[in-house]
Amino acid sequence: MDRETRIDRCSLLAKMVAWLDGYASLYPTDVAVIERKLKGWSGTDVDAAWKQVKDDVYAISQMPTKSAEVQKAFKRLSMVRYLLLAAAASSIVLMFVFTEGYLAFAEGEQYLLLAPIMVSYGTFSFYTFTRRSVNKKVTEFYDGRRGELSDRRRRIRRVTQTLIDKLYADVRSMHLEPDKFRFELFGTDYKNVTLVRRKGPKNVATVASAG
To answer: Residues 6 or more apart from 46 whose CB is under 8 A from it?
Structure first.
């Protein structure tokens, strides 16, 4: 493996560490993103590590489908998303009509130009509120099943540590700057890791430096 490929592998390892730690902490990302990033790495040790926990990751990601309440919240969010897209499209059309002079205003009515912007802003605010509500329901759903998922989480954490160790070894062997391969972690007790700063519920981290 040439140096450039190994550096690309380091970038992939950093992403995989963040994604798998998220699953181990029950803050999952889209599995399709992981699968997409692993295309072209079939047969490598990174792909082998992924296969060790692939079933666990899919099982965790699909668990919310068992909750009627969570599914109802997702459907509501989907409806609001379509509403947001419709509001945005309508605003663009209305602004075009206004600015091109296809619709005339009486004296003092120019403030109506703000209407499309206000509608879009209101819809976006509602979408943001709904999305946060859905995220809260998903978090509560997972929190109630931490014990049930303990074995799966343990396996994912073990593989996450393995990927950290691989990244640590590559960075050291190629004399790379650890800071170039930052990743975010919910867990704080991994080995060969340096926590850089706090970022909301997560920590920005790098592998430990050689010194």
So the answer is: 9, 12, 13, 16, 38, 163, 166
Q: Is the pTM of this model over 0.90?
A: no
| DSSP assigned state of 191 | S
Q: How many CB atoms lie within 10 A of CB 59?
A: 13
- The Cα-based distances of 13 to 18, 26, 64, 128 in angstroms read 9, 20, 27, 32
Q: Could you tell me if 70 and 64 are in contact, meaning their C-beta atoms sit under 8 angstroms apart? A: yes
Compute the average pLDDT of residues 49-78: 84
Contact present, 191 and 162 (Cβ < 8 Å): no
By percentage, how much of the chain surpasses pLDDT 90? 51
Q: How far apart are CA 140 and CA 195, in angstroms?
A: 27
126: amino acid identity, one letter:
F
Question: 165: which residues sit within 8 A by CB, 6+ positions away?
Answer: 191, 192
Determine the Cα angle at 70 with ends 23 and 83, to 5°.
Answer: 110
Closest by CA to 159, choosing from 61, 58, 56, is: 56
Nearest-angstrom CA–CA distance, 211 and 200? 29
